[in-house]
Amino acid sequence: MSYTSSPLVAPPRDWWQPAGRDEKLWLGIAGAWAVSMFVMMVIIWPAIGGQQNQIHDYRVDPSDFQAYTASFIEEHQTGELEGTPVVSPPPDTDIFLQASQFAWTPVLELQQGETYRILISSIDVQHGFSLQPDNVNFQVLPDFITGLEITPHEAGEYTIVCNEFCGLGHHLMVGQIIVVE
Ligand SMILES: [Cu+2]
Question: Cα(110) to centroid of ligand 1, in Å?
Fold first, then answer.
């Protein structure tokens, strides 16, 4: 009785033999695929379809950021939505969006077709900015501002969800951007 195909028997020790033809072929395909994905990520995607967000990063003290957001709200508040201030800023001002456990402050009301610069930061722990139903995603960290340049092309209500687990109320952390015509 032969046991050569049993998993208990070590396979023949021939790993030092030169790679076979099909092995070389698969390595070649995998290598070419990796290079083409890299080229797509760095060159094709940003160039075609505008899928790369314009992001500028700055350092900030969380308590300063909180103060900037408060004075921004004071200056441009136009209403309130379920306890959160609604702000309608002109396009040429710096817009502040503050992430905290467990809220996005304020609700932003923006004009369709205008270009805005939104400065986003956290005043406590790490959060994640995810704009629904559009596919805009990035991390929001205390001490750093993420400056996002956006031009909303379609009117409607957009939801911001936190996609980085930030504590017990994480699932309640929902904000809003309203785009009006
Ligand atoms: Cu969060």
Answer: 23
Q: pLDDT of 64-84, one tens digit each? A: 999 999 999 999 889 888 889
Ligand 1 centroid, distance to 153 Cα (angstroms):
27
For residues 171 and 156, give the distance between their C-alpha atoms in angstroms, rounded to a whole number: 23
CATH class of 54-180: mainly beta
Give the distance (Å) from ligand 1 centre to CA of residue 128.
6
Query: How far, in Å, from the CA of 103 to the mean position of ligand 1?
Result: 7
- As a whole number of Å, the end-to-end CA separation of the chain is 82
Give the predicted TM-score (pTM) of the model.
0.73
Domain range annotation of the chain:
21-52, 54-180
Task: Name the region of 92 (left: φ>0; alpha: ψ -120 to 50; beta: rest).
Answer: alpha
Residues within 5 Å of ion ligand 1, judged at the Cβ atom: 127, 162, 166, 173
